[in-house]
Design goal:
alpha+beta; 7-stranded mixed sheet; 6-stranded mixed sheet; 21 strands; 28% helix; 21% strand; Peptide/Ni-bd; ABC transporter substrate-binding protein
Amino acid sequence: MRTHFMTRVLAVGVVAALVAGCSGGEPPNSDNGASTNDGLTKNIRLEDESQPSGTPKAGGRLRIMIRLDANELDPHKMSETSAFVINEQIYESLVESYRGEIKPSIAESWEQSADGLTLTFKLRDNAYFHSGRKVTSADVKYSIERIKNPATRAPRARSYEGISAVETPDERTAVLKLSKPNAAILTLLSTAASSIVDKTVVDEKGGLNTAVDGGSGPFKIATRTAGQTIKLDKHTQYWQSGLPYLDGMDFTFNPDDNARAAAVRSGTVDFLWRPAPEFIDALKKDEKLKWYGGSGSLSLHLRLNTSKAPYDNVKVRQAIYYALDRQEILNVANSGFGTALNAGYLPPDRYGALTTPVYGKADIDKAKQLLTEAGFPNGFEAKLMVIATSAFQVRSAEVEQQQLAKIGIKVTIESVESTIADTKTKSGEFDMYQSGFGLTYDPDERFSASFLKGGGLNYGNWSDPEYEALIVQARSELDKDKRSALYQQAEKILAERGPVAMTFLNADFDVVQKDVMGYRGDPTPTYRFYRSLWLNR
């Protein structure tokens, strides 16, 4: 059965990542093997640039500024959004997702067996790693097995557990065997976390972090100074004819919100990635700039460490959840840009989300009653960890501190560097953690990594057998309506007795100079469209 069998499989998965308010232009060049989304992207509003882009010009370097550098650049180990932004320029996967459509990438075509248990990918004959070596099926096998290997500590490894084997009948053919049908498999394989890496580079260098490059994407690492700059050069052997247009991309990092806004207004940078919300209105009015966005891709939350008391007590968690006013947190922390999350992880307009709120205005009386029933009538003391250089998350923590004080929970805010937060969360050395999750192409990727036992992002090791059974069942359910119902049941459990209080979905904006052309945004989110950016200079 040919590629078009994938239409149904994609439809039940990728729509979880779709939202109104996307901005951008035309999709990248089409190719054979693409599968459609079966009409499930009807809620997406796509905006093109107000003026025609004209004929793309080759050359030039794009200067991009992001708030923070990534601590981990290994695509199989990364968890920070900045790492995804950078790595989607360096690495590629078998397929890619763009606005709800699965498209060919390293694999030029694919087939799936009638029983859904075998996926056969035909690799391009002109895909080359940055080392100059051709991408082969052995690299596909190595990459997937590396993700699944517990020693890799891949945060999303649980999503791959249904892949029982990878066979390589020849250099251009990779065959994935599944233990059961998987509705999310193609969207999973389209993510940067599923990047195909150069086996010889990993073996020789012992890993892929720092400035080691094992990718085949449109750009390759030229230099890196951790915390300051990453310079990428054009990959001259890139398989897609004519792309990328740019000679390179120069990423710089600055946690100072004022400095980032000033940099784009002065022309020091060409592309400001997600300015702080308090600067958005002013930047929109600057006639020298163009802005895109309005949709959100980052869900903020307050995570509780359920591996330690008193957060292992479900009534304590519920008391905290009822004490929070999520709309107030959004208004103060993000200038009201976004959507208050009054239920589970998924925003109400996403596939599988709860449409009826579980929480609303803070219910202080109910929260106090739950604390009393849990044995804490006078509350308790707690520490709330937050990354110091994330101003809007610090503001979130400060509002949460004030709200929890109303039920007797005396919160001390611990502002730490991102590397310290990473160490403490992974080792379970925290009480509460103000953090955020990027939305994923398919709900399974986030749910499996962040809330299932053994998930690489399940800080505090929360475990709920009923929740886990629903998520695992949903992964194999090919009927989109039944799958959605399973996620809604799981989301209700997560909201009522899970380890996190979801607070709000932010609203993302990108600001560029007038002569930066070809912006083709996608709120799934993906950043692979950067290969189509060009400079009208």
